[in-house]
Amino acid sequence: MKAITFHSSTDSFQLEEIKLPTPGKDEVRIKVQACGINPVDAKVINWKRMVGDQMNNDWVVGLDVVGVIDEIGEEVEGWNIGDEVFYHGNMTRPHGGLAEYAIHRVNTLLDKPEELSILDAAASPCAGWTAWRAVVEKLKVDKDDTLLIIGGSGGVGSYAVQIAKNVCNCKEILAVASSRNEEYVKSLGADHVICYDQVDVLEEVKRLTNGEGVTKSFDTIGDDNDIIAANALGFNGQMLELVRAVRPEKYENVFMKNLSFHQLALGAGHEFGNVGQKAIVDAGIGLTVALVNGQVKSPKLTTVDFEGAIKTLNNILNKKVVGKVVLTLDA
Question: Which residues, at least 6 apart from 254, have a Cβ–Cβ distance to it below 8 Å?
Answer without folding.
Answer: 230, 248
